[in-house]
Amino acid sequence: MAASMYGTLVKAVVDIKLGILVVDAELHVDQEQYLLELGSDQQNLWGINLYPQQYGSDGFIEFDSMINIRPRQQNMSRGVEDAKVRKRIINLVLSKVLK
Length: 99
Fold this sequence. Notes:
globular
């Protein structure tokens, strides 16, 4: 997937409440819209990047997406500022992605 889109990364959006992971779209917002159409709540959706070549290391998951900027949830950056939310994302991704 990485080779066909960006070379080294795969964009993904996770729904931390429903335990859904959507991968391989050009933009996080496209994945977010897809999940919203399936019934996800926007407050549970977080954009990340996966680096397949770094699977098994801390560099595998990057918390960086424009959809993560949401002042109403006290997330003022493109990252995921809440450590508990980051941990939920990591656990979800690792439960879904196999090397």
